[in-house]
Amino acid sequence: MENKSATSNFIRSIVIEDLQAGRVKEVVTRFPPEPNGYLHIGHAKSICLNFELADEFNGRTNLRFDDTNPLKEDTEYVEAIKEDVKWLGFEWDGLHFASDYFEEMYNRAVLLIKKGKAYVDDLSAEEIRKTRGTLTEPGTESPYRNRSVEENLDLFQRMRNGEFKDGEKVLRAKIDMSSPNINLRDPVLYRIAHATHHNTGDKWCIYPMYDFAHPLEDAIEGVTHSLCSLEFEDHRPLYDWVVRECEMEHVPRQYEFARLNMTNTVMSKRKLKLLVDEKIVDGWDDPRMPTIAGLRRRGYTPEAIRAFAREIGVSRSNSVVDAKMLEHFIREDLKLKAPRTMAVLRPLKVVITNYPEGQVEMLDAENNPENPEMGIRQIPFSREIYIEQDDFMENPPSKYFRLFPGNEVRLKHAYFIKCHDVIKDEQGNVVELHCTYDPETKSGTGFTGRKVKGTIHWVDAKHAVPAEFRLYEPLILDGQEDGDSFLDNINPNSLETLHGFVEPNLKDCKPHDKFQFFRHGYFNVDPKYTTPDKLVFNRIVSLKSSFELPKKG
């Protein structure tokens, strides 16, 4: 895989300084998802940052699952995340689970109790919330805060033994209820949850909170640079407190960067799960979803996503990236890779009345004019063909250069044809055109007798292969992706399904094969619904966009 990670950013500068000063001998990063949903494009940014940064400095990157909440986690998500990381082109050095460290975490919690730094609290979650205070007012100490070490040790052991109900007791850190940082106001370290864990089964009924588990996991694994998004900046003092007070041998450092926000895109696993649960989308891998699985099914390539992640860079300032930037990179990646071919999405039959009945002619067509090494293919041409409905108008406006009665156009890779008759049904809809062709105008023969301004695509009616085409627009209306009311702003036109035809050379194409359909855009063979008897194409992206990458410097 190509390594282009040496784009300057503040985290990379920190790593260089740490190596030069001898503060670290080897760079160790980690990608630590919670297995409570599928990864999305925002996670892809983090994956690329962690893996490429360590790779640049010959370090290591762990894939670690922060599986501390059995109520929301599932093995399905674990396997999906592993597949996504591999598909993006990365190999982890260590595969770990937070649950692998539950015994050590428990022992470190016992150490905190013995040091007088943690206590068992009987307050409910609601009572704890009410006594935590506000940004301007200090919190109120729990009446259970000054329990003896012996009582806390006994109660914590009994919590582990399963003697208490969910929510009946918690273990809290004993820090400072008047701290200006609310995260330091005696945060909860353990809660009771009588639930089966995907990895440890029923061994545990108490589970560590993320803010307690995460720093310990980093310390246990020898992580040097713990990279997370900006919302964890206020958690960093607690992160450092846990490492210090738990007396961890290795001391990792946390650094925060701005998460990825994109137009028309939901960046929340909770909201994405809601879309799945409400059946607004066809699963986590719906091509409208910003999940890596959805992008893969739609037809995005790992190369395009990695290039996008490098381009948006790493900063400490929150911003919103135009989704068209991601589209730009898939166009750039596919323009030399994808074969060019013709597909008719909304068919209109054309009979070429002066073409010999029963005759089939094979015409040469280049597979990709921008990449001659992809060679040529042969396509059949006969008396009856399909063109796009949009390529004909009975009463066209001025400067309409496609087909209309009396007008002549070029058929891509074939001949000039002229429309003579328009056949309509009882409702007045155009159902068929009768045209003639000029045999002297065959493409590639150097014909210069006259010019036409319009070129349209087509497929041979006798040999064309039926296909389904799925065209996508953003799932969320622009500017409506934030807040819990986002479900009220679902785009009703996010999916359009059409039935038409493709060239016969596509009859044996395989899932994830990608093509550029003349004038329509780039398409991917859908891996979920394509069968030997049915071709389904997802449009990855249209051919053109007004988007341009911002100039640097």
From TrEMBL:
Domain Glutamyl/glutaminyl-tRNA synthetase class Ib anti-codon binding residue range list: 338-438
CDD domains: GlnRS_core
Residues binding L-glutamine: 66, 210
Main location: cytoplasm
Domain spans labelled Glutamyl/glutaminyl-tRNA synthetase class Ib catalytic: 26-335
Segments forming domain tRNA synthetases class I (E and Q) anti-codon binding: 455-526
PANTHER family: GLUTAMATE--TRNA LIGASE (PTHR43097:SF5), GLUTAMINE-TRNA LIGASE (PTHR43097)
Subunit composition and interactions: Monomer.
HAMAP family per record: Gln_tRNA_synth
Full protein name: Glutamine--tRNA ligase
Gene: glnS
